[in-house]
Every structure is written in structure tokens, then in C-alpha cells.
Amino acid sequence: MNTIEKTNEFVFQTYLRQGKAFVRGEKSTLIDEEGTKYTDFLAGIAVCNLGHCHPKITQAIEKQAKTLIHVSNLFYTSPQADLAACLVGKSFADRVFFANSGAEANEAAIKLARRYFQSKGEKSRYKIITMEQSFHGRTIATLSATGQDKIKEGFYPLLEGFVHIPFNDIEALREALDETVCAMMMEPVQGEGGVIPADPLYLSQVRALCDETGTLLIFDEIQTGMGRCGTLFAHELYGITPDIMTLAKALANGIPIGAMLATSRAAQGFDFGSHATTFGGTPLATAVALEVVNIISEKKFLEVVTEKGAYFRQKLEELKEKHSRILDVRGKGLLVGVEIDEDAGFFVANCFKQGFIINAIQDKILRFAPPLIIEKNQIDRLVAVLDNLF
Q1: Which letter does DSSP use for residue 260 in this model?
Q2: Per-domain boundaries in the chain
Q3: Which residues contact 98 (CB under 8 A, 6 or more apart)?
Q4: Which residue among the candidates 249, 315, 320, 332 is catalytic per the annotation?
Q5: Confidence of residue 303 (pLDDT cuts 50, 70, 90)
Q6: What pLDDT does 168 receive?
Q7: Which residue, of 47, 102, 115, 244, has the greatest Cβ tally within 10 A?
């Protein structure tokens, strides 16, 4: 049996896969078993922000794999310490908890928010407000936090204590924010929900309400962080900071890792033995992530991401002027969504046939999250393909 046949025979059928098996990657290109090349405008779902097989990332993997891979969190390791110090130095945070994935990072944030208040005797403050159309993960807790009913089907009963309200609606938040709420959790730009940016005034009002009520503000930056939106973290675009932030996806450019960052105030919720994970923050994952953070956080690198994102959206706006079936173009940096009035799957399939990997979400939205090193000529070629398809 070949790769596709083995996968279909032995792996759980939970993914609707494209009919190709990839064997190699280079920069913004993926190559299948037959040698066919594809320009990647998905980056492993906003994971490979530095593209495929970046030489410095490959070197970091090789160096650490020859030195030390895992010892458990019962001991100290320098890569973990160095990455934690780096993330604190480049963010609002004072403490970092390392996990394996975005869902685990969000689980940690949920637990921290609840325990922060319960450890102080405020046991009635346990509810977490999240947004409709949000996505926070596939575990039971993060699924409960997620504001999309379609992915919850078959998993009921979910955990209690989550309240979902409309995004960008400050009055809905005021109404929901009572003495039982411990935290508000949201994405600065909803990714899976349709690439919907938060309104700047809304976010400033959210921060003010949280300050007024003592509520913890959690930003899920799993998809929007690590330069994706043109700043190291998307909330920097809005000039406000959360109390807790979660990262994953692009943090180690494909090596599994998650992180929860918190202020010293919020971090008081965790003490010895209150939370743990076996594989969180291994020497291998943290050594690679440190290299990734150092590359992406460079001012010039982020300026180029912003420039390319503006260029991409401009080209898509020009398409919108030509084609009435394009309803909206939106996003931040190189996280871009195009809403259309028909099934987005048609465009995904036909772009793939012509050597471009894109993504469809919410049935009628095309999502683009290419490697941050994508070239303008590659953007031009994709736009030309889309132009012909419309």
C-alpha cells in the first residue's frame, strides 16, 4: 500500500484530506510524492510562519537533538529558561507556563483564571465569557469555551461555566459581566470564525471593563501571534495588553509547543502542584522556539510582514471590485479572509489543482495564512488564479 492507502486504512478518519502526500518542503513550497510543487498559502494552518525547512530552524533542531531532548519538568533546563526569559522580555507577561499545544495552553489559561479567584476564597467567580464564532480547541474544556455549535455536536454534555456573547458587542459584554465571572477569553482576530478582527474601540472598552470589575482578560493568540498579524503579538496593534495570553502553532515553526503567559498578579493562581504536563517545554521544543522568536521579533522582519499583508489585501480588494461574488476582504497582516457568496470549497479544490494550497472556513470564507516569508510574485500568481476562477 502507498501512503494514502495506509492512512485511509489505519488512521482515524477525522480529517477530510486532499488527495496528495507531501514528502518535502522548501520555503513557501511543498512537494508531493510525484514531484509536483505547490505554493503554500496555509502554512500548516498558520504554523510554519518561517516556511518549510528554514535553515536556522533546521540547525536548531539538529543541535538540540544531539544534546538533550527530554528530562521532565522535575529538573531545570537552559533552553526552557532562555525561552521563558525571552518571551517575558518581549511581552507584557511576568511568567510563562509551557504546554504541548494550543488547546493545552488554553486549558491552562482556563484553570489559572478559575483558580486565581478560588484560591482567594472567591469560589462564586468561575464563569468565563467567550465570543460567538470563537475557536479555542478540541478538548472538552476548550470545546466548551468555543462559540461554534457545529463542532460541539456529539460531545454533550459540555462543561458548565462558559457564557457566549456576540463579538464586537460591548453592550452584550456589559450585560453578561456579573459577579460570577472570573475571566473574559477572546481572539484579537477570530481565525476559524471567519478572519474577523476586533474593533479597536471595542477592545479598549473590554480592557476598561475588566479593570473596573477585576476580571481577568485572556487573549488567545494561538493563530494570531508570532508575527502573523504584523506585530509579534496581535494585541500590540490595539495598544492594550491582556492579563493572560496563549501561544502555540507558529511558536516553534512546526515542533509541537504551547505557552501560557501571565502577569505576576494572574500567575498567583498557580502554585506548586496546581498544574503540570509531561512534555511541556522540552529542551528540543524550547530551543527551536527561541530561534523562531528571535527571527520573527526583528523589527525589519515584522515591517515586511505588514507590507506584504497590505499588498495582498490590496490585490484582493482589486478582485472584489471586479467580481460581485466577493462580498468582503478583511484581516490583519498575513491573516486574510475573503467572504464570497458561494461554496468556498470550489476555490480550494481548483486552486489546489493549479498548485496553490488555500483554506475554506465557515463554508463561504477563503482563509489565507501563508508563511510570513511568502514573496509578492507568489501572491500575484495566486491572485491571477483566483481571478480566473471567479
Answers
A1: E
A2: 3-53+299-389, 68-296
A3: 80, 83, 84, 257, 258, 259, 277, 280, 281, 285, 286
A4: 249
A5: very high
A6: 97
A7: 244
Of the candidates 311, 338, 315, which has an alpha carbon nearest to the alpha carbon of residue 325?
338
Rounded distance between C-alpha atoms, residue 252 and residue 245, angstroms: 17
Mean pLDDT throughout 9-27? 94
- CATH T-level fold of 3-53+299-389: Aspartate Aminotransferase, domain 1 (3.90.1150)
Q: State the sign of the Cα–Cα–Cα–Cα dihedral 174, 176, 180, 181.
A: negative
322 a catalytic residue = no
Distance between CA atoms of residues 266 and 264, nearest Å: 6
Q: Which pLDDT tens digit goes with each residue over 355-377?
A: 999 999 999 999 999 999 999 99
For the packed helices 345-353 and 376-389, what is the interaxial angle rounded to 10 degrees?
Answer: 120
- Which one of 92, 135, 219, 356 is the catalytic residue? 135
Q: Looking at the predicted structure, is the pLDDT value of residue 350 above 90? A: yes
Spatial contact of 263 and 227, defined as CB atoms under 8 Å apart: no
**Residue 12 designated active-site:** no
C-alpha 139/C-alpha 28 separation (Å) is 31
Q: Residue range 96-123: average pLDDT?
A: 97
With 0.90 as the threshold, say if the pTM is over it: yes
58 CB-near residues (< 8 Å, 6+ apart): none
Kindly give, in sequence order, each residue whose CB lies less than 8 Å from that of residue 253, ignoring residues fewer than 6 positions away: 47, 48, 49, 50, 54, 57, 288, 292
CB 359 within 8 A of CB 367: yes
pLDDT classification of 203: cutoffs 50, 70, 90: very high
CATH architecture of the region 68-296: 3-Layer(aba) Sandwich (3.40)
Which of 220, 233, 270, 308 is labelled catalytic? 220
* CA distances for 348 relative to 134, 320, 351, 354, angstroms: 23, 18, 5, 10
The partner residues of 366 in beta bridges, in order of sequence, read 338, 360
Is 211 known to be catalytic? no
340, β-bridge pairs: 326
